[in-house]
Write a structure and sequence with these properties.
By secondary structure, the chain is α/β, with parallel strands linked by helices. The protein contains 10 helices and 9 strands. β5, α7 and β6 form a beta-alpha-beta unit. The mean pLDDT is 96. Bound molecules: adenosine monophosphate.
């Protein structure tokens, strides 16, 4: 496994991987501090492509003022060992100056799916995500790129950006969404779970349980508003400090819905505990 930290090194390593027979390349964009969720994306990429490139870049433009940019865990050596064991061919680990050289002035802003939910509390976050992911696509030129459904709004933003910038139509690359990988108690794996105290980590297991309860109630025909209120109060009772949102939405447009209509629906939640913001989402059966 190689590690590239400059664009020139990346391009030459990717060209070697492609070879003369045009081997396929799968890209797994990450911010490092890898866990089973990330490694599952790498495994999916390995199954689907000849070679896997994993990017590790803590992207400053997707962090807002007062967020955890400086505290965000950085552990390139440990990440590299995990990626090597998974058969990743190349790590793309640029520093901030390589990604955003002096004079960098461009920005990709996706409207619609970028609005509401996480954007309400993190203004500019999805511009940062769309711009860096677009750059990663052009830097690596993969055939497929793999993203977790854990960040459901992010996946919707990336799909919209790739579609609108003609990366998927006519076909240049495929965007693959991978189901959320969870801890034994159901908590979605996240690099930020390590911020939780032991007590808050136990309480955090309430999040997926309360979401499942709300989904069962909604699927049985219960009132959506009441189910979401019950979810919020379950979280506060369990020790969460606040709930940023608990919303039922159309899975494709992310438009909030107040009743099941037959279109695919998703429950999305963001809540804070002990200074850590946790997000999760689950499918709701509309049949
Ligand atoms: P991050 O390093 O948090 O930016 O995440 C990098 C990629 O891993 C994103 O596509 C995430 O959606 C995905 N990811 C993070 N956590 C999980 C998880 N628990 N299950 C599946 N994918 C995940």
């Amino acid at each position: 496994m190689q590690t590239a930290s400059t664009i020139d090194a990346l391009r030459s390593q990717v060209a070697k991987l492609r070879g003369s027979d045009g081997a396929t390349i799968g890209l797994v964009p990450t911010m490092g501090a890898l866990h089973e969720g990330h490694l599952t994306l790498v495994r999916r990429a390995r199954e689907a492509c000849d070679h896997v490139v994993t990017s590790i870049f803590v992207n400053p433009t997707q962090f807002g003022p007062g967020e955890d940019l400086d505290a965000y865990p950085r552990q390139l050596e440990a990440d590299a060992a995990m990626l090597e064991a998974e058969g990743c061919a190349l790590i793309w680990a640029p520093d901030v100056a390589a990604m955003y050289p002096p004079g960098f002035v461009s920005n990709i802003s996706v409207s619609g799916v970028s609005e509401g939910f996480c954007a309400a509390d993190r203004p500019g976050h999805f511009d940062g995500v769309a711009t860096v992911v677009c750059k990663l696509f052009h830097q690596v030129l993969p055939d497929m790129a793999f993203f977790g459904e854990k960040d459901f709004q992010q996946l919707a933003v990336i799909r919209a950006m790739a579609r609108d910038l003609d990366l998927t139509r006519p076909h240049v690359l495929s965007i693959i969404g991978v189901p959320t990988v969870r801890e034994a108690d159901g908590l979605a794996m996240s690099s930020r779970n390590r911020y939780l105290s032991a007590e808050n980590r136990t309480a955090a297991g309430t999040l997926p349980r309360a979401m499942k309860n709300a989904i069962v109630a909604i699927e049985r025909g219960g009132d959506v508003g009441s189910a979401l209120s019950a979810l919020e109060s379950d979280l506060i009772k369990a020790g969460f400090d606040s709930v940023d949102y608990a919303t039922l939405a159309d899975s494709a447009s992310l438009a909030p819905i107040t009743a099941l209509s037959g279109a695919s629906a998703r429950l999305l939640v963001a809540a804070r505990i002990g200074g850590t913001r946790l997000i999760d989402n689950m499918a709701v059966d509309t049949a």
